[in-house]
Amino acid sequence: MKDIKEDRFIVSVKVGPKGQITVPAEARKMFDIKEGDTLMVMGDKNRGLALLKADAFYALMGGGFPHNDD
């Protein structure tokens, strides 16, 4: 992993045979991602992919989306 600053980093991950990736430990720690958490995968063909914890996504959207984090 390449540290840029304490609040940023860049890392590569490999896609497995089932299309899965592993969220690096540093990212899980930084964003408090725990086993069982729901992540939103957002994509834009020109800008790429982004991951966001579901609770942060719903807060960003103003709570207007129904969700179930169980």
Topology, please?
Elements: E1 2-5, E2 8-10, H1 25-30, E3 39-44, E4 48-53, H2 54-60
Antiparallel strand pairs: 1-2, 3-4
3D architecture notes:
The chain is an alpha+beta fold and 70 residues long. The chain has two domains: 1-30, no CATH class; 36-64, no CATH class. The chain is 19% helix and 27% strand. It contains two helices and four strands. The chain has helices at 25-30, 54-60, and strands spanning 2-5, 8-10, 39-44, 48-53. Strands 1-2 form a two-stranded antiparallel ribbon. Strands 3-4 form a two-stranded antiparallel ribbon. Strand 1 (2-5) and strand 2 (8-10) form a beta hairpin. The longest helix is centred in the last third of the chain and has 7 residues, at 54-60. The radius of gyration is 14 Å and the shape is globular.
